[in-house]
Write a structure and sequence with these properties.
By secondary structure, the protein is mainly beta. The chain has 1 helix and 10 strands, in the order ββββββββββα. Strands 1, 3, 4, 6, 7, 8, 9 and 10 form an 8-stranded antiparallel sheet that branches. A two-stranded antiparallel sheet has the order 2-5. Bound molecules: manganese (II) ion (MN).
Length: 128
């Protein structure tokens, strides 16, 4: 058994390359879990969101704080609330982020393939 301690988490700014607005990421575990899975806590400040992207091996998201929104390519905006869990299939392009007036934190679990940053920033019109 291996235990990753929450006390060891280090929040780092996600940077502007793949995100709009201020986003903080801390790793829960990376690549040493069964199946090569990775997990991160991702905290979005109000108005912040990912760029369009996909996950070669899919993604599980569990919202643990606040209010946010997500959208699949050619799909409707979908609200996110604490306690919601999402399953994003392999290769499905999407984005996720906070509402304009709220923080949103989710736990992300991805497979070995991680994230494919294969899309542009989410426009203000798309964001709503
Ligand atoms: Mn994603």
């Amino acid at each position: 058994m291996k235990v990753h301690r929450g006390a060891d988490h280090v929040a780092t700014p996600a940077g502007e390359e793949h995100f709009t607005g201020r986003v903080w990421i801390s790793a829960n575990f990376e690549a040493d879990a069964p199946g090569g899975m990775n997990s991160h806590d991702v905290r979005f400040e109000p108005g912040a969101r990912t760029h369009w992207h996909s996950h070669p091996d899919g993604q599980t998201l569990i919202v643990i704080e606040g209010r946010g929104r997500t959208q699949v390519e050619r799909g409707e905006l979908t609200t996110l609330r604490a306690g919601d869990a999402l399953f994003v299939p392999s290769g499905e392009r999407h984005w996720h982020g906070a509402d304009p007036d709220a923080f949103m934190t989710h736990v992300s679990v991805t497979g070995e393939g991680g994230t494919a940053w294969d899309g542009p920033p989410v426009t203000d019109v798309e964001y709503g």
